[in-house]
């Protein structure tokens, strides 16, 4: 049996968007398509301003994901923790929906007695370990983020290390915004290994605008493209299997 | 941000505060906080069964996972791999108007690993580590990997000091991805391997705990993690004695805790026997000196008899000469 695929966007930024559509709306759109949006806000020594913080929380909330604001030095730990937490959250959502169907309208995991909850949790753990995961990483490379990019790269290697220890398959893609010509630019196509990033990341140049909304919108289309491509491949495989029989 | 205020509130429950479980109706009287982890806060509390440790958290997922692990441990007969689980329940917190999950464990009274070493001396490190390796072997045999192994999760208990594992939050089924880790003790951070839950993952952490115990501080990774660690091992007098074992653990060469246990034990015996052979060679040197002395004595004895014999011969010759005259 084919296990389900979890789709996530991981947005790494250090402040407020200033160009194009409202990123919170784009995150809500992502959620409608079954894609979770997580946001990590990266700080230097300075604190993040109120509007930036509100936007970070807003995007994650609308995107059904997790948000966390951290100093650059804690980034590695945070990236993997946020991704994991969001996976569990999504899976729990799925399990809760199933529970509702079985037990009636307003039952969630918390309403079960602790003994039963443990059993449900084991199912969630199992799914989290074996499910296929697609993470599209969207890195803000505008202005002040430039000095933090080496740390971001390291954190992404670390994420790959953590997630590739799972039984389930992983697919990562890395995009940066703003791009040279467009709002968003692909630096790494879907791959199970983020290590391939080392050759592409240092080439980045940082620009002035921060088009978080448009970047999110374009990232969404990339999930779809991939989907259709993959279904093509998998139907091919089926064909082969049949012919070999 | 919301979570933070909730956690802060949970950390500051006043002494004497009573919480009652929603499902099982047991009541617990808080005495004092024992510690704060990533997923919640642990209190010493009084129950009808005596003193217990209560872990409260607003993260029900994490609590439920931990309870699952503790339940599995309680099935392991005879050996205490973690604290035993007494109760799991929910509590309605009137302050935040939210349900807070908690579980109740046996209260283990002891001293944390590093302060015990500081107080009782470095010779205890290897003894406690050997105990730890025996416990890990049992844990691994049950199909689990501890994961977040670090001094904070180790407690030294009792008059005959014995190491105990605490905080099973990171414990992961073999073959899965490690759930929780701390960078310094994580082989992934040092570039020495994957984050897959396998016995060698824990054994790397054991080596790092020994390094931590000798230096009493953690340090950051530089360019080449392996070289840096090997240099640190070479620079410390205690660590140098177990260099071979530590390097093998860091390289992930041990597949089972018992192999590391055997070789560490061998290194300890080797070390004590090498001091013994030193004293033995001292003795033998003393003996050879004695022998040489005795030899000289013997040689002088031969000389003496020869002289006496010659003297007697001379006297005899003189006597014969006198008779002949």
Automatic annotation (TrEMBL), chain A:
InterPro entries tied to this protein: VWF_A (IPR002035), vWFA_dom_sf (IPR036465)
CDD domains: vWFA (cd00198)
PROSITE patterns cross-referenced by the UniProt entry: VWFA
Pfam families referenced in this protein's UniProt entry, alphabetically: VWA (PF00092), VWA_2 (PF13519)
Highest taxon of source: Bacteria
Transmembrane segments: none
Domain VWFA intervals: 1-91
Name of the protein in its database record: Ca-activated chloride channel family protein
Organism: [Anoxybacillus] calidus
From TrEMBL, chain B:
Biased composition (Basic residues): 277-294
One example GO MF annotation: ATP binding
Region (Disordered): 270-294
Pfam families, A to Z: Pkinase
TM annotation in the entry: 301-321
Binding site for ATP: 55
Annotated ranges, domain Protein kinase: 28-273
Keyword Hydrolase appears in the UniProt entry: no
Keywords attached to this entry: ATP-binding, Kinase, Membrane, Nucleotide-binding, Transferase, Transmembrane, Transmembrane helix
Entry keyword rRNA processing: no
SUPFAM superfamilies per record: Protein kinase-like (PK-like)
Gene3D superfamilies for the chain: Phosphorylase Kinase, domain 1 (3.30.200.20), Transferase(Phosphotransferase) domain 1 (1.10.510.10)
EC number annotated for this UniProt entry: 2.7.11.1
Primary enzyme class: transferase
Protein name: Serine/threonine-protein kinase
